[in-house]
Amino acid sequence: MKFLSTTTIILFFILISSSLFVVKGQVDCVTQSNDASCVNYVYPLANITADINSLCVSMPYMPVCSIQQSCNQVSSTNGICDPFSILGDSCLHDMPGMSGCNNFKKLCASGSVVKQCSTVDSITNLPTTMQMWANIQSICTEMSMAGCEKCTKLNATCDVLPVYSTLCLAMPEMSQCANWTKMCQSTGNVLSSPISSGICTDTPTPATNCFSDPSDPKCTDYIYTSANSNTDISTLCKSMPYMTACSIQKSCSDASSTNGICAPFSILGDSCLHDMPGMSGCSNFKKLCASGSVVEQCSTVDSITNLPTTMQLFAGIKSICTEMAMDGCEKCSGNSPTTTCDVLPVYSALCMSMPDMSQCANWTKMCSSSGQLYDSQITSDYCVASTQDAVPIMRMYFHTGILDYILFKSWVPRTDRQFAGSWFAIFFFAIFFELEKTLRSILEKRWAPKKKDSDDDNLINSSLLKGSYPKFSYRDIIRGSLHAIELTCSYALMLVAMTFNVALFFAVIAGVLVGNILFGRYRNYTPRVTCCE
Ligand SMILES: *[C@@H]1O[C@H](CO)[C@@H](O)[C@H](O)[C@H]1NC(C)=O
Ligand SMILES: *[C@@H]1O[C@H](CO)[C@@H](O)[C@H](O)[C@H]1NC(C)=O
Ligand SMILES: *[C@@H]1O[C@H](CO)[C@@H](O)[C@H](O)[C@H]1NC(C)=O
Ligand SMILES: *[C@@H]1O[C@H](CO)[C@@H](O)[C@H](O)[C@H]1NC(C)=O
Ligand SMILES: *[C@@H]1O[C@H](CO)[C@@H](O)[C@H](O)[C@H]1NC(C)=O
């Protein structure tokens, strides 16, 4: 009996404790996260996924959505790619106020004993959506770069984390990239993660110690290959297609030249020595050619002397185009350069047609006859207008030169020979003009009524005019025609003079002078009075 009661008591205790355990097991750890029994509670994966989806449906541009995607792509579910950590990226710092974070916040509220909350491995120093958006806007107003086009508005097209990373990978030294630098520092958890590529890393560095120690005497003969240079130039031009180096590369490949300033390493130098050394495409160049470098390629790099920077060129274009609308200005209408605005060709074209503008001082320097650009195979793109394509411009002041429209769109002398031909055409035309004037005055003289003709049958008496005048005759048609021809000639000559081209102006004057000397005196002709007239 005693044994029975003991067993009963034990059984009773087992029952009580197990029922207690059951009650404990039903504690909702999401709402009572401080309950001791919730230590090992694991928030179900399905609910995490549902929460992330809910966040990403309402704000698809949030970093959490890009991170989830990147993690899916590399099939990783550990560390920062653990779904609960991904949810934490949003709910710990970024947008804790969103409904998708309700469960996470309750589960991991202060006092929570849930282990999962203390092991969450969210990205350290991940900037918030709004910080990244602000930085993107700031970068993109400063200069347009590849990626900016996605973020004209904060909507689904603009995934802030990849876009911000792309911009900062291209220009890591921009002040707006301070937060990116912090996120991607070597002590952070992104750089070593499988999703680092595209967020924190980009161009691989060729395996040689000449990049870490370019002063090593063994590096004297190290050659950074053309292929490597071209890869770097592509990297640069992918993010800023309007950069000077990209235009130069294009001109060089059009001219099939790979020497001197057209050598890929020199083109890279155009960008990395003066223009945009902060861009990631320049990181290898900068390492290799750092101060103290013994690499011979660096001391012989033939980058263009006095090449203005991309931003100086754009400022020059803006200044010229505000002063006067010219062909080419329409390509650079924005407040920052865009893909249509290749600054170097546009600026050069403007300065080739108006070389005397003050904004072209830097062009004059770049294209000075002692510079390499002037002597190169690509000079016709930037320094010397090929006369075949140059467009004459209207200059309302006396000027020399041969490039002017003469009366017709297609009459543009482009060679000295053509100009000489035009000059003589105008000269003889002016002589013809004088001849025609003389002819008309001779005819007028001959047609003038003689004194004794006052009772001529051909005269009409008019009481109104108090005199007589000739009847209508074929002479009136000839006189009118001659006068029309004379007026046409004189207007045409006037328009030629109005090209303000000094040589053409004097072609008109010389023609009139010679014509007048030759024919002027005939205007004083007196018709011979014959006995019978
Ligand atoms: C998880 O999701 C399921 C299905 O939607 C739901 O029934 C359950 O209550 C959720 N669990 C928590 C802890 O929110
Ligand atoms: C986002 O905004 C831009 C600019 O207004 C627009 O071109 C783009 O189509 C929008 N994207 C989406 C997914 O709505
Ligand atoms: C970087 O992030 C901090 C907060 O983490 C913020 O206060 C700061 O404005 C950010 N810096 C820039 C340049 O946006
Ligand atoms: C020419 O280049 C210099 C620097 O080399 C720059 O300071 C200046 O503003 C440029 N001039 C013009 C007119 O763009
Ligand atoms: C015109 O008037 C003059 C005299 O004034 C006269 O001799 C002449 O015959 C007139 N001619 C005609 C056509 O009427």
Describe, in plain words, how this protein is organized in 3D.
The protein is elongated, with a radius of gyration of 43 Å. The chain has 22 helices and two strands. It is mostly helical. Strands 1-2 form a two-stranded antiparallel sheet. A hairpin with a 4-residue loop joins strand 1 (459-462) and strand 2. The chain folds into five domains: 26-118, no CATH class; 129-207, no CATH class; 226-299; 310-382, no CATH class; 395-449 and 464-533, no CATH class.
Task: Describe this structure in a few short sentences.
The chain is mainly alpha-helical and 533 residues long.
SSE topology:
Elements: H1 2-25, H2 45-58, H3 63-73, H4 83-94, H5 102-107, H6 115-118, H7 129-142, H8 160-170, H9 178-183, H10 226-239, H11 244-254, H12 264-275, H13 283-288, H14 296-299, H15 310-323, H16 343-353, H17 361-366, H18 372-375, H19 379-382, H20 416-447, E1 459-462, E2 467-470, H21 474-497, H22 502-519
Antiparallel strand pairs: 1-2
Bound molecules: 2-acetamido-2-deoxy-beta-D-glucopyranose (5 copies).
Residues 152-153, 155-157 line the site of one 2-acetamido-2-deoxy-beta-D-glucopyranose.
